[in-house]
Amino acid sequence: MKIFISWSGSLSRQVAETLRDWLPSVVQTIEPYVSSEDIYKGARWSVDISRELEASNYGILCVTANNINASWLNFEAGALSRSFEKGHVSPFLLGIPRSDVTGPLLQFQSTVYERDDVLKLVRSINSVSDIPLESARLETAFDVWWPKLQSTIDRLEGLALEE
User: Fold this and answer.
1) Alpha carbon separation from 150 to 3, 29, 33, 58, 125 (Å, rounded)
2) Per-residue pLDDT for 36 more than 60?
3) Is pLDDT larger for residue 64 or for residue 158?
4) What is the SS3 assignment for 79-147?
5) What region does 132 belong to: left with phi over 0, alpha with psi -120 to 50, or beta?
6) For the CA atoms of the chain, what is the radius of gyration?
7) Most buried of the four, 42, 88, 136, 147, by CB within 10 Å?
């Protein structure tokens, strides 16, 4: 199953790249895509992104205070939700509460960066996966890999505050 991870801005990109590397450790059957890492040099980025948006079954939008109104995030959210039956989109909120989300992103169930909510996101991804993991196995994998995700994102947030 393909997952499109959208970003806009430095912190958002770094979180997207972190999720791209982390998610397959928890749900091994998924294929995350992040434009900053997965577009080959010399490729037409707009064609590549369009192809991935069309092929993806799930989208994660890395949303921060600095990009909450970014036009590309809203565009990619719309492209990912093109089919209400097939498209699943979750804004991944970093350092902002759900109450700050407005406009088109408000229609999607968001994920707040905290352990239990990220676990719910992983369960949701697993539930629509081509070959879902059994619940106990998924939670064991999550428990093993959560500390790595948490330490990396906490470090990125700290660096962003220093800027």
Assistant:
1) 20, 22, 20, 22, 19
2) yes
3) 64
4) HHCCCCCCCEEEEEECCCCHHHCCHHHHHCCCEECCHHHHHHHHHHHHHCCCCCCCHHHHHHHHHHHHH
5) beta
6) 15
7) 88
Single-letter amino acid, residue 106: L
**Exposure letters 9-35 (e unless 16+ CB within 10 A, then b):** bebbbbbbbbbbebbeebbeebebbbb
Distance CA 86, CA 146 (A): 27
**For the segment 133-159, what is each residue's pLDDT rounded down to a tens digit?**
999 999 999 999 999 999 999 999 888
Encoded tokens for 34: 């992040």
Q: How is residue 148 written in tokens?
A: 């790595």
Given this model, what pLDDT does residue 43 score? Answer: 66
Return the bridge partners of 105, or none. Answer: none
Q: 82 is written with which tokens?
A: 């093109």
